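Message: A physicist's question: would you kindly supply an amino acid chain plus fold tokens?
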Amino acid sequence: MLVMKMNLIRNSSAIKKLKINISKAKDGDQLALKYLLDTHWKEVYSYLLKRVKSKDDAEDITIQTFSKAFDKIDTYNENYTFKTWLIAISKNIHIDITRKKKNYVYNEFSIEDKVYLVADESPTPEDKIIKEQNLASLLINIKELKYKYQEVIHLRYFKELSYKEISSKINEPMNNVKVKLLRAKKLLSEIIKKVDS
């Protein structure tokens, strides 16, 4: 009985924290967007992996899902769970990509000049961990990332390109670039923590 009460309290607290972060994300709060990405990445990615059977495709569609979700966060209806909303977005993106492939249309990404809520100007805890590394060990740690994450880290932090320039260079929408950078920094900070412990 005590365990059930503890689980109810934990679930209630998690739901409350999620609602607070969704509300903050609607106001463009960077840390709230990062929280939503970190909290739901695995669920969306796992769902897509079952559908597409390719880790790279699942990851690309997950990035597009969060990009679109952050772009349209104001339309989120709180009568539905946030996870269900994200899964619906990912399902629709996957269906669109499948249709385009069937029609032999190879332009899978539409490039937009608009930048929506995914802002990345303030340093995150991951930025602080990354900056504390010496260059040699940082470069070794970056090599542990998948190429697509290495590329955006390299372009942003070593070549010091703007989001718009990176978007143009890798031919992806700016929101995708920002979501990739958020994800890359999280993965890199986890690698650094593992190496340091």
